[in-house]
Amino acid sequence: MKKVLLFSCMLCLSIPAPAQKKVFNFGIKGGLNHTWLSDNYASNTHRNSFHLGALIHLRLNDSWRLQPEVYFSAQGEQEENNNYLVFPVLLQYRFKQRFFVEAGPQLAALVNRHAKPFEIKSEDPYRDNNTNVFDVALAFGAGYKFTRHVSAYVRFNQGVTTIRASSLAKKDFNEVLQLGVNYLF
Fold it and tell me: How confident is the model at residue 147 (pLDDT cuts 50, 70, 90)?
């Protein structure tokens, strides 16, 4: 009898029970950027660059997720390279558990800036070319979850604050198209 009871207990323990879904995951992300400044879309000075960082994926329920991120993003144009540390907070809606859309605000802090020198006339109203230290933007995107760990996304970030510190300077806004991959642990 003891052997039957022991065998029954071992059998019950070996049957996989439905696991509770994790509430949050840590992950890494990275991908390609295609960037430009809003006043120069047709100028062919777009910059192809990259972004790389980390994220926390919070499961709110079966359909909704909250995803705060931090990543380095190389932005700007060919003549003006602005590199940022970006902090978005995205709300994701998943449908059919594979496809998702996402949107949310983001704050970016300027890490470094490199502008190619150009000739400036003293009466040029744009000569005060100081770059703002912070950039605020709205992010919109969509993606597909391939496996439990891997998903791909496309995202557009529209700057809502001008990148220039002077009121006389051009009203340039960062615009970034991103294509990337997330890996959740």
Answer: very high
pLDDT tens for 76-122 read: 888 888 999 999 999 999 998 899 999 999 999 999 988 776 544 44
pTM of the model: 0.81
DSSP 168-182: SS----EEEEEEEEE
Report d(CA 116, CA 63) in Å as an integer. 46
User: Could you tell me if residue 20 is inside a domain?
Assistant: no
Task: Kindly list the distances between the CA atom of residue 53 and the CA atoms of 76, 95, 117, 178, 184, in Å, as whole numbers in the listed order.
Answer: 18, 26, 31, 13, 12
The total number of residues shown for the chain amounts to: 185
Handedness of CA 74, 93, 173, 154 (dihedral sign): positive
φ, ψ for residue 28 (rounded to 5)? -120, 160
Q: Is residue 98 part of a domain?
A: yes
In a domain, 73, yes or no: yes
Look up the CATH number of the domain holding residue 55: 2.40.160.20
Q: How many domains does the chain have?
A: 1
Pair 82, 108: CB distance under 8 Å = no
Give the span between the Cα atoms of 79 and 160, in whole angstroms. Answer: 21
Q: Which of 29, 155, 174 is nearest to 108 (CA)?
A: 174
